[in-house]
Design brief:
The chain is mainly alpha-helical. The protein is built from eight helices and no strands. Helices cover 58% and strands 0% of the residues. Helix 1 packs parallel to helix 8, helix 4 runs parallel beside helix 5 and helix 6 crosses helix 8. The protein is globular. The two termini are 31 Å apart.
Length: 156
């Protein structure tokens, strides 16, 4: 998955407006304007599309954590310059205050089976022997499950 797609999915799932997106970046001490956000949210074939770098997505996810859980005391955490699918999964887990069983339930909700051990392997430190890389398909399925769980239902 590319960074722009992840940003678009989070925006859609939580129904964020442009002002809220700018505010989320601000919570992680990054100043952006409406034009930047708009260009990141566009499709690749649109003329003013701008690719979202790993650092910018890491800043957004740090701001998302601050929005959902509150800003922690002291300096803001340093955003990663290189962001893996594992780091994205971990940041979303933190922001949404999910336990391993909650993540498993999200996968089950979209008819995908995943064991607690697999999830644990995705969340481990890369230096540990049990660490496993989170492939795009797992992250895509997780984002789909989050969308089903958190997207406001229109008919309810």
């Amino acid at each position: 998955m590319d960074n722009n797609d992840i940003l678009r999915r989070i925006r859609y799932t939580f129904d964020f407006k442009d002002e809220q997106m700018i505010e989320i970046f601000g919570l992680a001490d990054k100043t952006v304007n409406r034009s930047m956000v708009s260009d990141w949210l566009k499709r690749e074939d649109e003329e003013t599309y701008e690719e979202l770098e790993d650092l910018e997505l890491a800043i957004f996810l740090n701001g998302f954590i601050a929005l959902r859980r509150g800003k922690r005391e002291g300096p803001s955490p340093a955003p990663e310059k290189i962001l893996s699918n594992n780091a994205i999964l971990r940041k979303l887990k933190i922001a949404l205050e999910l336990k391993t069983e909650d993540i498993q339930d999200i996968f089950t909700g979209i008819d995908k089976k995943i064991s607690v051990h697999e999830i644990s392997a995705f969340l481990r430190n890369p230096k540990q022997s049990q660490f496993r890389h989170c492939n795009d398909q797992y992250l895509r399925n997780f984002m789909t499950g989050i969308q089903q769980k958190y997207r406001p239902k229109i008919n309810e």
